[in-house]
User: Fold these one by one.
Assistant:
Number 1:
Amino acid sequence: MTLEARPQADRLVVAISSRTLFDLQESHELFEREGLDAYQRYQLAHEDDLLQPGMAFPLVRKLLNLNGLSTDAPRVEVILLSRNSSDTGIRIFNSIAHHGLEIVRAAFTNGSPTWPYVQSFGADLFLSSNAEDVGNALQAGIAAATILPGQAPAASKHDQLRIAFDGDAVIFSDEAEQVSKHEGLEAFHRSETERAHTPLSGGPFRSLLDKLHRLQAAFPIEDSPIRTALVTARSAPAHKRVILTLREWGIRLDEAFFLVAATRDRSCRRSAPTSSSTTSNVIASRPRSMSPPGMCRTVCRIVEQNMRTSVGAWL
């Protein structure tokens, strides 16, 4: 079945900005320094110059490669959203073709925000280097995250895509966090113990988790190209409600890390790419500034990067 013939509900759709897919730092710095006209002249003059992969390029390649691994698996589609004009965007499409990326749908907004088009394309995830676009998307209930612009990290030794999710306010709603925020950590643990058998509501990333689960289900567990994990500041006794909620949803996560705030914070600081790292990961977490007391969160970011082993392999 072709991509076009697949029902939308069966597809994982990821919308991504051009600055995260390719390294556009040089031209972006020119834009900030000399303005739009200089930027447009530069892009037209370099239309045939191929762009180098950006930070999200390895993630996009791994996602699209899933389409060739099983005819039974749901399809993955990547959509390009760019603040370029269609005229200056020719260089981007030239680079997409050169790198062999199966990206056929795109929107060029000529300087306008791109996030309003995410829902129009039915995207399950929006990745951008524009923090304002990401913030507006999150406020609209869209799973979105910021990727810092720059060159792609060194290629990993493994093709497996590893995806780690934060819990509260990410794959789950922030209902439990509100208890912690207004009543404190002790009240939070008491509430979670009392409501252990009451499933949590879904958060902005639940749809993405559902789609990934469907993709995983098409492959044997022992040989899956995708591996998922939960990395949360929850610890016992608050862990039980999370486990039972995922069971109620019918979602399987390969690994789960229930960490106290300080442990999780130290693990997060180990997340910087290193030349000796062995695998590529994606991290979905909540901004620290949006977190209540006692609940550790890191910068709201999904970053495809090489990581260390052990817990650091996920964080």
Number 2:
Amino acid sequence: MQVKKRTYSILVLLVVMVVLIGNHSILPQENDNKKQEKIQFIWPIDSEDLSKKISSLFGESRGDHFHNGLDISSYNEPISLIGEGKLIYSKYSEDNPFEEDLGSGNCIWFSHDNGYQSAYYHLKEGRNYEILEKISIKSGEVFARTGNTGHSTGAHLHFVITKDGGKKIIDPLRVLPKVEDNYPPDIKQLILTIGEKYSVIKNNESLNVSRNFPVSVAMNDKGLNKAHRRGISSARFIVNGELTKEIRFQEISYLNGKWINEDNLTFDDLYFDGKYFIGNLEFRSGENKIEIIASDFYNNRAYKKFTFFINKIRGKY
């Protein structure tokens, strides 16, 4: 009896291990190359529930361009300098009240050691003139308050970090202390676009196609706030067992008249009609599978597989 019990226990343990390893093997294959910088700054806003106030993330689509920083929902809260630095640029509406307000609204730029710069947009009216007279400003020193100036749909701080003398714009999360976030992104709809029309690809659905069409996927990252629809940090697209594309949003730089990410992919390479662009895919007749692994900056991951069937036809497109 003891031998039987022991054998049964071993079998149960093996089954558990197989299940765990099987589930584990799906997700960790993604390349964990999040670029956490050695230098660490402090958050510009010392606020309760900061995780819930981060409403937009780096690299998101803004229709025809990348979102180049973090948005923190806030109004009339003090803004602290993230690290010791020097004021290099300041623009407030009072400088020229007859000039059309720029998208950034009231804004301030600082330079820091090791080639970093930080920028703060949509600041509340009322410039702090004391900082204009200082040669250097200490880390944590308050220099402005959050507002709603410029092209802004709601009060928030738009916060930007550049490095290498401004040649690269990086994800601010790379240089900031970690905030609470244990929730993976949400992989929603797989979309096939035909001309000006689109079709949501459902699992086990049969589709008639005449040629290659753009395929994209709707994904977002709510974090701790269910109302948010933030962007992801990276994703892998596997089509019929083969890695077709990997996308990352760690940094962007300007090259030959276009903004590109660290893999030299342009905005149009990464987005299609506001969704994450998988590609102009050539499907095979019969069963097709698209697997998607999406990750936020802190490597909280989501996995989803879409299975569908293709019938190739002759068409006018």
